[in-house]
Write a structure and sequence with these properties.
This protein has one helix and 19 strands. The chain is mainly beta. The strands form four sheets. The protein has a six-stranded antiparallel sheet with strand order 1-8-9-10-11-12, with helices on one face. A six-stranded antiparallel sheet has the order 3-2-4-5-6-7, with no helix packed on it. The chain is globular and about 50 Å long. It starts with 6 loop residues before the first strand and ends in an 11-residue tail after the last strand.
Length: about 375
């Protein structure tokens, strides 16, 4: 099945190459995110506009201060890097803003907010641009535990960066490290415009946001599949924005952030009895398998629970994202479909099919 959207890719980037420290890995990861956002992975239509940035020494409008990985500087005091990007039309009636900041003591952490209004202050090399109050910004500044995006440098366990972005500017980015046990894909950042029949006058904010980190082999999903587990709300899963170490969110149709709402993913065949159940989709193939293209690619819908109220509100559909398997024994992480290279169109991360040109199992070269 061909992908619905026109995706551009930056896959299986080995961040260990030439690295010896956590900082090296962090800088390369951020620079790959920067090139995904500012350059659209080579697709100018997909690219976001860089509003302003800092390289830790100075700050200025535009993106001219960042041209290499070493321009990303971490500090919990003065002299740190950040950038603000915006994408017109991702929110159909305006612009979506994203701020990424390196104002942390640990090179494993970062700062983030999404907003649909222009930030309240410009910022400088020592100060982050200020997010808006009054409920328009989703941010993860509440606790350091929400900020981690990589496990860090390990000479024997390489860290990889993966991203995909479509012509609307919708994107997914991932941190991966092939641990001998536990989660292979530990972090995901995403901003994706949903497909919905509702007009922008009825629902002006049909954008799904994710800032998800989890590296534990047990505790998120029955199989410990990280931030894209099917176990989407319980066990510190991927629910409201500021839960432990991970979160996903949408603005309500009236523009309020309501970060206590659960934003969940549901699919056909799901158990209608509650949002903390699994949809029991299960097909047996090993990790990295090449499938024959006949896998049933079910659509994935985004629901808004309105603080746990029933019934749930359907906000839209995640284009080109399909459930893969909830097998508590056999992981199909990195599987691809269709099987014939180089025409792969999807690969599995955690329990979901994502658009890809080959396997995105950490360490593969597909």
């Amino acid at each position: 099945m061909a992908n619905e959207k026109n995706w551009s890719y930056n896959l299986n980037v080995d961040l260990n190459d030439g690295s010896t420290t956590d900082l090296n890995i962090a800088q390369k990861w951020m620079y790959n995110l920067w090139t995904t956002i500012s350059g659209g992975n080579g697709n100018a239509t997909a690219a976001w506009d860089i509003v302003s940035c800092s390289n830790g020494t100075t700050a200025a409008a535009g993106g001219g201060l960042i041209s290499s990985a070493t321009d990303f500087v971490w500090s919990s005091g003065t002299g740190f890097s950040w950038f603000i990007a915006k994408k017109d039309g991702l929110i159909p009636t305006g612009s979506l803003y994203m701020m990424i900041g390196c104002n942390k003591a640990s090179d494993l952490d970062y700062n983030l907010y999404f907003d649909y209004n222009v930030p309240q202050s410009d910022g400088d090399e020592n100060t982050l641009p200020t997010a808006n109050a009054a409920g328009t910004a989703f941010n993860n500044t509440v606790a350091l535990s929400n900020d981690q995006f990589i496990l860090g440098y390990d000479a024997g366990l390489k860290t990889y960066f993966n991203s995909m972005i479509d012509t609307t500017g919708s994107f997914y980015a991932f941190s991966s490290r092939f641990n001998t046990t536990g989660v292979k894909n530990q972090f995901s950042l995403a901003a994706v415009r949903l497909e919905t029949p509702r007009s922008s006058s009825v629902d002006p904010y049909p954008v799904f946001l994710k800032n998800g980190y989890w590296n534990t082999g047990t505790g998120v999903g029955v199989n410990g599949q990280g931030p894209w587990s099917f176990d989407y709300t319980s066990n510190n899963g991927v629910s409201s924005w500021n839960v432990a170490k991970t979160g996903q969110a949408m603005w309500r149709a009236d523009g309020t952030d309501y970060s206590t709402d659960d934003i969940m993913l549901q699919v056909p065949l799901g158990d209608p009895g509650g949002y903390n159940t699994n949809p029991f989709i299960d097909f047996d193939n090993g990790a990295g398998s090449s499938l024959d293209g006949t896998w049933p690619l079910y659509p994935t819908y985004v629901y808004h629970t309105a603080g746990g109220a029933i019934p749930y509100a359907v906000r839209g559909r995640l284009p080109d994202i399909s459930p893969a398997s909830w097998n508590a024994v056999t992981s199909i992480e990195g599987a691809v479909t269709p099987a014939v290279a180089p025409n792969g169109e999807k690969s599995v991360i955690s329990h979901w099919w994502f658009p890809a040109t080959g396997s995105i199992l950490p360490g593969t070269t597909g």
